[in-house]
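Posted in: Structural Biology > Protein-Ligand Complexes

Title: Requesting predicted complex, adenosine monophosphate in pocket

I'd be grateful if someone could produce the 3D structure tokens for the following input. Sequence and ligand are given below.
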Amino acid sequence: MTETTFTTLGLAEPLLRALTAANYTTPTPIQAQSIPALNAGRDMIGLAQTGTGKTAAFALPMLQRLESVRQPLVRNCPRALILAPTRELALQIDQSVKALGRHVRARSTVVMGGVGFGNQAKAMAAGVDILIATPGRLLDLIESRHVRLDRVEYFVLDEADRMLDMGFIRDIKKIVALLPRERQSALFSATMPEAISSLASDLLKDPVHVSVTPAKVTVDRIEQHVYFVDAGNKRTLLTDMLAKPEMKRVIVFTRTKHGADKVAVHLVKSGIRAEAIHGNKSQGARQRALSQFKSGEARVLVATDIAARGIDVTEVTHVINFELPHEPESYVHRIGRTARAGHSGIALSFCAGDERPLLRDIERLTKTPMIVAMGERGTAGFGPRPPQQRNNGQRQGERQGDRGQPRNNNNRSQQRRQGAGGAPRRNRDARAA
Ligand code: AMP
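-- Reply #1 --
Done. Output follows.
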């Protein structure tokens, strides 16, 4: 059997040159599966997380198509639209598109909340081929007539499940309604809840299904430990942990922006170089924090789930969940930061008494019990422990009772959806970070 290469996938020479310059030697599985289907003009649904190479999987066929049928730029009218849930992800996609498209003429720009409106409107007026956008700002620009979608030939919805979590689904539907019927579309999502499959069936025509990262496979390469610790002792545990030399590049996750700030301040006071990244920071401050972390100047990045979406830093040695997320899917996203580009990684979770039900939800999703590194699994949220396993320090999550109860977080998801869906749209991109 011949080996799959970017050449055998049928990519044009200018793209192959850009791939060589970017040091992409072999297509990742999602690229190998998606590129031929997208090049053939098919719609696609991809079950894949950040870190799998999905950006190039949709960007390469997009660039190839735009280049092979060149058209003059038309004021305010992009030919390709990529929707991303967060500013970080949008910027990262733009970087990839620019890197991969360096030898073709396609022009791209980003529109997103949190930065001035004027330059984005100007860029649109000059004409772009590829528009990368967060949903709220895109709708604002459409309303103010700085963007028109009636010439879009190629549409990508990235991280669709996160869009749903962030209450963007109504915005997405509005945007999709403005797209021409005749177009090629691709949807990517790390998970496939019912709402996303139904959105996909509205959006896509006879799509090719590509799946590369079931949650189980992704977390397999990651060592996962849990520390049962009182909320008040988490900070001390964190600083003790970070004193270890093997903690070379660490992302610490908190649930709230305020929590991220508090943890970062505590670390800095304890003599540990740390930066916080979340939506209350300006775009410039966020980019600075990220580049200090990337360069190693700051060893620790304290982040909220949403701000960390799409952050692509290789060689993150540890992810520490200072607080467990409400959504178990977010846990999978978080720990995925530490096992990128084929590396294995370590994820450490701090679990206070009231977080035990969250731990149970996570273990049920990942089907991987965490190794107990400190404290003991209590009964709260875990059901009774069989007597033979008491005090033996075993991987207690493997017990039947730990995951045998029905999950019931419907009310929580409902509240979140109502909260998110009901907020005025202009605030959304601000929240989206
Ligand atoms: P993504 O899932 O698109 O966020 O990509 C994850 C990371 O993998 C990014 O740093 C890409 O630059 C990198 N990457 C994507 N495709 C390849 C490839 N074929 N070879 C090497 N690195 C890649």
